Amino acid sequence: MGLQEYQIVGRHLPTESEPNPKIYRMRIFAPNEVVAKSRFWYFLRQLKKVKKANGEIIGVNIIHEKKPLKVKNFGVWIRYDSRSGTHNMYKEYRELTRADAVKSLYQDMAARHRARFRSIHILRVVEIEKTEDVRRPYIKQLLVPDLKFPLPHRVSKFRSTFAAHRPATF
Amino acid sequence: DSNFKRFVQVGRVVILKSGPYAGKIAVIAEIIDHNRAIIDGPSTSVPRQSFPYRHLTLTPLALTKLPRAASSGVIKKQLEKEATIEKWDKSAWAQKRAQVERRRKL
After folding, report:
1. Locate the Large ribosomal subunit protein eL20 domain: which residues (chain A) (predicted)?
2. ipTM attached to this prediction
3. CATH number of this structure's domain A72-141, picked from the four choices 3.10.20.10, 3.90.780.10, 3.40.50.620, 3.40.50.720
4. Which of B47, B46, B28 lies closest to B38 in space, CA to CA?
């Protein structure tokens, strides 16, 4: 179940004092449209005096990845709530699409920091163009030229309890 | 220097173990990370995609001169230049696989 990137455009409902309210646009990562619209209101409420009851969503579009077969290095800036405070963080992922990178991020934050979807704000997702700009060693190690490694001691699944020969591990 | 003979590297020929293209040959075009690679088999009708190593088997064959993240066209040309698919079809491994398949169909 992957995440999608949505472009959500919304505004306050027009009133007599403000017949043409400002229109706001957000890029939201969510599993579906419903969650995307909900997150849009959550973030917009924090920034402007508007809520779902007195606002309207004008447009919802899926943002597709421009080059889904190009391997990209993404740097992601987040703000998340831990059990004792809220912190900023910068993480890097090597993925094919922005949505994949954000999905990996949520899984990673859940595993390493027990942070749930609701506690994480994605501030920025940026494709790192130049290899020198990569900051984390766990990504740098995959960017060395002529990278090669074996798959040592592969254990394959056995179909029966007894076999005539010991397995090959390569 | 290394005891290992088959490496995950750009240009390595692999057999797909599962999925809709199981049993087909492809070439590693780029390494994504320690779990996945982009594979491409333009002459064996395997579309360019990300694939996990768990569902791949490395073969002893590899293209020697393949640049990283080469496009399908470049891979196709290199495959034809080094005649890798023919080398694979002549190998004992491939012939054994073909023989097993023929016997199953009888």
Report:
1. 3-125
2. 0.91
3. 3.10.20.10
4. B28
Q: What is the CATH number of the domain that holds B76?
A: 2.30.30.30
Domain regions of chain A by residue span: 4-63, 72-141
Query: Is residue B4 a part of any domain in this protein?
Result: no
Which pLDDT belongs to residue A167?
87
Q: Is B89 exposed, middle or buried (0-12, 13-18, 19+ CB in 10 A)?
A: exposed
CB-based contact A125:A30 (threshold 8 Å): no
Chain A, chain B: beta-carbon pairs less than 8 Å apart = 43
Q: What is the pLDDT of residues A45-90, one digit of tens each?
A: 999 999 999 999 999 999 999 999 999 999 999 999 999 999 999 9
Would you say the CATH fold of A72-141 matches that of A4-63? yes
Q: Which residues of B touch A71 (CB under 8 A)?
A: 30, 32, 38, 69
Number of domains in chain B: 1
CA distance A109 to A80: 9
Give DSSP secondary structure letters for B36-69: EEEEEETTTTEEEEEEEGGGEEEEEEE-SS--TT
Q: What is the pLDDT of residue B12?
A: 96
Chain A residue with CA closest to B12: the answer is A148
Residue B29 Cα, gap to closest chain A Cα (Å): 11
Judge: B32–A96 Cβ closer than 8 Å, yes or no: yes
Check whether B10 has a pLDDT greater than 80.
yes
pLDDT (tens digit per residue) in A99-110: 999 999 999 999
CATH 3.40.50.10490 fits A4-63, yes or no: no
Query: In degrees rounded to 5, what are phi and psi of residue A145?
Result: -70, 150
pLDDT at residue A158 tops 90: no
